[in-house]
Amino acid sequence: ENKNLEWKEKVTPQYLKTVSVFSNYEGGTILFGINDQGKVVPLSDPYKTCLDIENQINDNIYPQPDYSL
């Protein structure tokens, strides 16, 4: 992890703060399904997780950041 890369083991509302920080600075990447030790922790339903992330960003961050999943 560094100033442009963040690992999240699971999707929790706290990741929205990271999205906001990245959108206000140089950008960055959040990788879900990776723990703090860098090990992969599979997501139970990646497709649903992507939809949830998209909806949460669109509903909670204004102005909406430029992002991709």
Give an overview of the whole structure:
It is built from two helices and two strands. The two termini are 19 Å apart. It has 69 residues and is α+β, with helices and mostly antiparallel strands. It is 36% helix and 12% strand. It has helices at 15-24, 46-60; strands at 5-8, 29-32. Helix 1 (15-24) links the parallel strand 1 and strand 2. The protein is globular, with a radius of gyration of 12 Å. The model has no long low-confidence stretch (mean pLDDT 95). It has a two-stranded parallel ribbon. It has one domain (5-60). The longest helix is centred in the last third of the chain and has 15 residues, at 46-60.
* Helix-strand category: alpha+beta
Principal-axes geometry comes out as globular
> Which H/E pattern describes the elements?
EHEH
Number of domains: 1
Alpha plus pi helix count: 2
Low-confidence stretches: none
User: Which bin fits the share of residues in helices?
Assistant: 25-40%
Percent in strands: 5-15%
Question: Biggest β-sheet, characterized?
Answer: 2 strands, parallel
Number of strands: 2
Overall mean confidence score, pLDDT:
95
The neighbouring-strand order within the major sheet is 1-2
Rg measurement, Å = 12 Å
Ends distance? 19 Å
